[in-house]
Amino acid sequence: QGEKMRVVFFKTVLLLLWILRVNGWMHSKCNIYDYVDDMPDRDCLQGYSKGLIASCKYVTDIEEDLHGLPQNINNLCISMTMDENGIMSLDFFSQFHDLEYLDINGCFSQILPTGNSQALSNLEYMRLQALWVTGCCDCNVGSNTFRYLVKLSNLTISKFRLSSMAPDVFNGIPNLRNVSIGNSCVKDLSEILCRLMYIKSLTDLVIEAQEIQTLNQSNCPILNTNESMTPVFNNLTGCSLIFGEITHIEEGALDCFKNLEKFSSYLNEELLLQLPLSGIKQIHLLRYFGSEHIDFRSICNLVFLLSIKKLEFNTNYPISFSMYHVDLCVGLESIVLTRTLHFYTSISQIKWNFISTLKNVTYLSVYDRTENSLDLCSFQKQPITWLNKLVLYLNIQFFFSNQFSCLVNLLYLKYKSKLSNIEDFAFLGLRLLEYLDLSNNNITHIHANTFYGLYSLIWLDLRENPLIHNTEALSFTHLTSLREVFLGKLNSPLREPVIKLNLTLIFGDILSQLTQLYITSSMRPMYIGRCVEI
Ligand SMILES: *[C@@H]1O[C@H](CO)[C@@H](O)[C@H](O)[C@H]1NC(C)=O
Ligand SMILES: *[C@@H]1O[C@H](CO)[C@@H](O)[C@H](O)[C@H]1NC(C)=O
Ligand SMILES: *[C@@H]1O[C@H](CO)[C@@H](O)[C@H](O)[C@H]1NC(C)=O
Ligand SMILES: *[C@@H]1O[C@H](CO)[C@@H](O)[C@H](O)[C@H]1NC(C)=O
Ligand SMILES: *[C@@H]1O[C@H](CO)[C@@H](O)[C@H](O)[C@H]1NC(C)=O
Ligand SMILES: *[C@@H]1O[C@H](CO)[C@@H](O)[C@H](O)[C@H]1NC(C)=O
Ligand SMILES: *[C@@H]1O[C@H](CO)[C@@H](O)[C@H](O)[C@H]1NC(C)=O
Ligand SMILES: *[C@@H]1O[C@H](CO)[C@@H](O)[C@H](O)[C@H]1NC(C)=O
Fold it and tell me: Which residues form the signal peptide (predicted)?
């Protein structure tokens, strides 16, 4: 009772403080926050936040609607209304001398530079997005617009038509390191690259350009004929290129990039051959979208040539994986195989023995709706020591005993589908498994030996199952490392008016070591046999 009282008391005090703060500064379109946690729309800060935050919404006129904002704000998020929003002058922001972070979502006809070398001199992060616009915002941005932003190190521009900006729009920003160009409605990569050429300090680059179909060599007017653009990109440590449906890659088109952090695109068999000739030497993560039937061996050929470490493979075309296909994929460390549609996939085949070839793979995720078996271990002569994390979305309803027994170093297992039957000892052998996520399945019974052998299990999630009125006594008692359990919603048969759950009976001695036990009953009375402090 005393505990409860104290909690209520604290809440009252917090509420009062909050009211005082809000009363201290009232504004029709902006809210001020001391802490990012108080902020409902904190996404605009991308995880960054130091100091005082102002968030303004439904803004139609920046100068009018932001009038009277405290001048010592450090972060400013502005969300404009959907209409086209006139001219924006960066000069307006010079009154906020401590501004470090500026995020604006809106479309303007023009952005005017500041004529003042002191303006925005503390700005480090700027993001300009025109999220509401279909297509791209045609915004006129002239030469050297961002010149005086001496501290600007991180710039994102998204959904602004780049060809409406001056070729040297990014000239003279001395410390710009990270640049992200979201969709910019250009068909020619050189429209982007030639503008980036002015950013001598660039180290991190993300380009997303869904509209580009052919990757050609860039020909930038600012470069002399015997100058190459490579030196500007020499200091790039991270570069990600995200395309849509490319149809042709010219030889040398990506010469200025040697190493890519990420390359994402639809690729056909022909492009898989063109990509290694593009000038790219290495790709860390390849996100592949299949636009036709493909032999997985040609993917592995690319993996080999470009030292790819992580592969995310998406296709809706039938595909075969087995040991036979993956020889050249031995360098992979992480694989995600995904389908988005169901209807094509009925002939695809997965033979799980491919895992025994891929000895560097620590992470494997497979999403596949066909009736493949999940025969991971029966053909393995040696234990699979390299796999740590396994995530499966399969069309399999049944786990048999010892199903995972060869995965001796597995730490994390997630299975999400229609699993309804788990044979006793199904998880035997998973001695090191710490996280087991069986949420969103069709499990109705937990038996005393269902989880037998999971000595290291810390975290167990059984939410979103039609479970658990059928949990046998002692089902969890042998899980001696268990700390967090999520049973979710308990469904008792309708004819029983009260759900009875004797926690001592199912958890035994380990009940006292749990730090988290999550149970809900869907509006029906619930009786719990022992009170736990949660
Ligand atoms: C630039 O990007 C890299 C990688 O995403 C990140 O680690 C770094 O903190 C970023 N730097 C700035 C100034 O945002
Ligand atoms: C800076 O840029 C990188 C991309 O290069 C991005 O991942 C990161 O989130 C940005 N940081 C902030 C604080 O905006
Ligand atoms: C790339 O080159 C091809 C042939 O040389 C040409 O048809 C295509 O239009 C070019 N693409 C761009 C974006 O310039
Ligand atoms: C690359 O970085 C080095 C060291 O930070 C710097 O001296 C050099 O000027 C940079 N190169 C370019 C093209 O900016
Ligand atoms: C070509 O490069 C040389 C040095 O490699 C330089 O002296 C010359 O001025 C350059 N020519 C042009 C047109 O820039
Ligand atoms: C597998 O990983 C090890 C250790 O990181 C590395 O030395 C080896 O080269 C990798 N194998 C392949 C084929 O890349
Ligand atoms: C769930 O399992 C029951 C049998 O236990 C079955 O009748 C039902 O069709 C299953 N539901 C789904 C979505 O697979
Ligand atoms: C719950 O189970 C324990 C162990 O079997 C038993 O001692 C206890 O009486 C039960 N509690 C209730 C309320 O049924």
Answer: 1-24
